[in-house]
Amino acid sequence: LDIAWAAGIFEGEGTCGPTKHNSTQVxxxxxxxWLCKRLRDLFGGSISICPANMAQKRPNPINIWVVCGSxxxxxxxxxxxxxxxRRKAQIQAAIA
Length: 96
What we know:
alpha+beta
């Protein structure tokens, strides 16, 4: 169930791609810090917080879960079968 839950979160809110150093990175941004903490507990990675910015009309901070390298590739391979064709193509490009 945790994998299907994480796959649904990634489908709606996630991004993935290569880093500058030829690695793989997954990122999910959420207002709800609990969600990012749960992803970190399940799959590793780290959380950073982007503060509120009234100039950009963003009154709440954004939590950003990031996982890189082999953990990112493992996460993407784990959730792959639950993804839409568009997301599967993004995952294939990210881990190629």
